[in-house]
Amino acid sequence: MRLILISLFIALSLFGNDFKAPDENQSIVEAPLPKVLYLSLKDVPERIIKGEIFSITLKTLSTVKKFQNITYKFANQKGLKSINKVPYRENVKKYYYDTFFFLATRSKAKLPDITATLVTRNNQKYKKTTLIGEKINTVTLNPKKEFSNIIADSFKLVNYKTTNYDKTHNIIVFSATAQNCNIKAFKLKNVYKQGIESLKKSIKTSKITYYAVINKEIENFSFSYFNLQRNKYLNITIPIIVNDDSVTTQTDLKPKNQSKEKLKMSIAGAVALVGFVIILWRRKYIYLPLIVIPLAYIAYMAIPAKDVCIKQGSMIYLLPVHNGTIFETTSSEMIFTKEGSVKEFVKVKLKNEKIGWVKNENICSN
């Protein structure tokens, strides 16, 4: 027994330096995080057009049944603009179908690298899954000059109206709806002035109210857009029928109709003339109202237009709509000819013969 203890002591003396406790600073290798998400692309278009809005759908499978959300991060996309950061999600059995929309902005496009992360209520960590984006065949249109920059499933006029702008121009105002369209890109060529009066953007259905100032010689105004469903250009034509009253497509603005004043005055004059002839023939003054009433109407209509005082710094709008286009601001208190009115706006004729609209609040109180 004594011999065994002596042998053990000698062994510890010789080899004791080889037996050391683990260093506190020594790193411990962690087990790899488990992969719980599996991604694949579904409904990717074979070809897109520069300026087109298109969608892709991710088919996602999670091996974890109870979780809070699946989030996505995009990287390395080219020639595309993301429209929705949060996907449109549909759950079918054990799969999640997440749809994202993009706008093609260049002639060469590549889908983003998509990294998916599973979010749990207890912040448990799992391995992120990345799907590498692929290139998409992109086509650039070569349209004619009447192209309006619109690429859509459909583009339809809702209503339109034309009125005088100045001695050489008319102004068209129209509203239109579009499906699957970057409607903000709408722009016309070969017009004197143009602009957006109101805009309602949406991925599926958008609406725009637009104005264009064109030459008086034009009898039918046309422009085109590219229809994705029919894969060709379609023309939109607006017949030019000039109205002398309000320039607006909004149904709640109903101006006083003065477009038939001359015709009414002519009819009144004819009635007065007939009444005068009857009185001379019958020599009975019972027919006198046939002369008095029409002549009174003609005298009333012939009264010169009233002048209106506009405050200094007042904004003159192109159309009687809120947040509309402002084309002039009064530098001082000014007097204009009043042409009409609609609700909160007064129609005035400027010194340069142009027509504008001023809010009632900007009319001088005295």
Strands, helices and their partners?
Elements: H1 2-15, E1 37-42, E2 47-49, E3 53-62, E4 69-75, E5 80-82, E6 88-92, E7 95-104, E8 109-110, E9 113-119, E10 129-131, E11 135-139, E12 147-152, E13 154-164, E14 169-179, E15 193-200, E16 205-215, E17 220-227, E18 232-239, E19 242-243, H2 261-282, H3 289-301, E20 307-310, E21 315-317, E22 326-329, E23 334-342, E24 345-349, E25 355-359
Parallel strand pairs: 2-11, 12-17, 13-19
Antiparallel strand pairs: 1-3, 3-7, 4-9, 5-7, 6-7, 8-11, 9-10, 13-14, 14-16, 15-16, 17-18, 20-23, 21-22, 23-24, 24-25
Average pLDDT figure: 81
Order of helices and strands: HEEEEEEEEEEEEEEEEEEEHHEEEEEE
Helix residue percentage: 10-25%
Rg from alpha-carbon coordinates: 38 Å
Beta fraction? 35-45%
Write down the overall geometry. Answer: elongated
How can the largest sheet be summarized?
5 strands, antiparallel
Give structural notes.
There is one protein chain. With 366 residues, the chain is mainly beta. Among the domains are: 37-139, Immunoglobulins (Immunoglobulin-like), CATH 2.60.40; 147-243, Immunoglobulin-like (Sandwich), CATH 2.60.40; 307-362, Roll (SH3 type barrels). It contains three helices and 25 strands. The strands form seven sheets. Strands 1, 3, 5, 6 and 7 form a five-stranded antiparallel β-sheet that branches. Strands 15-16-14-13-19 form a five-stranded mixed β-sheet, with no helix packed on it. A four-stranded antiparallel β-sheet has the order 20-23-24-25, with no helix packed on it. The longest helix has 22 residues, at 261-282. Residues 14-21 and 245-259 have low confidence and may be disordered.
